[in-house]
Amino acid sequence: MGSHELPCEARNLHGHFSRDLEPVLEVEPGDAVRISTPNNAWRVRADERIEPKDQRDTGHAIAGPIAVRGARAGQTLVVRIDEVIPGTWGETFADESHRLEWELRGGVGRALGLEVDLAPFLGVMGMPPPEAGVHSTVPPRRWGGNIDCKELVAGTTLYLPIPVDGALFSAGDGHAAQGDGEISGYAIETPTEAELTLDVRDDLPLEWPMARIDGAWLTFGFDEQLGRAASIAVEEMLALMARELGVTGGDARILASVGVDLHVTQIVNGSMGVHAELRDDAFR
After folding, report:
1. What is the pLDDT of residues 125-141, one digit of tens each?
2. Which helix (DSSP H) or strand (DSSP E) does residue 228 occupy?
3. Is domain 3-201 classified as CATH 2.40.50.140?
């Protein structure tokens, strides 16, 4: 399989989703892509920022779009997260006037005389809505985007329903560490280098994203109402349990009530997120 690289340059970045954006790269299914992105605010250092190439780029700095040759709407994009490397500094805000800068070194973040273990991941991984026009990078959608799930670290795999031919996948918004919920609206926002392997499946139809992490399956739901987001995640988990465990209907719902955990992914992106988790050892 092939490998590609998108350096941290304005020509490889954008800050909005649109099916009309020209891809900066086309890959074959199974190819790996190494991306390098500024932090969410387009900063490569605390005092240096990349200027967006388009006045519509008001959102997160994300690399792409990447076209996957032969991908078709209705198929599933498989995103294997091979590696995520945070920068040496990061920043977190409580609001526009209250900012904290972090030193990131040796897998540890340091600020306020405290330390936190780093668990880097990409906050944004997704594709544009099928509708024409300019779409914000802020809310997550059924085709991915600003999912902000701290579980999607290196070694995990994200599965996304493809909305448009070619997929037009983009990723960025590196986080060095984040708690479930992302309470202030910000994680440790840091420039990030990552390697992703992109593939396509036509035997796994999905309505919403799901993921495979170490020892567990995750399903996602997004909505302006947290309860509705939870309901979507649950329904997707019931469909997953039918595939993985062969249980359906009332039996699946009973087992979900006993062995599935719900987590608040984030509550700050307009469309809130919930992920349901089924551990491999939940049932013997």
Report:
1. 999 999 999 999 999 99
2. helix 226-245
3. no
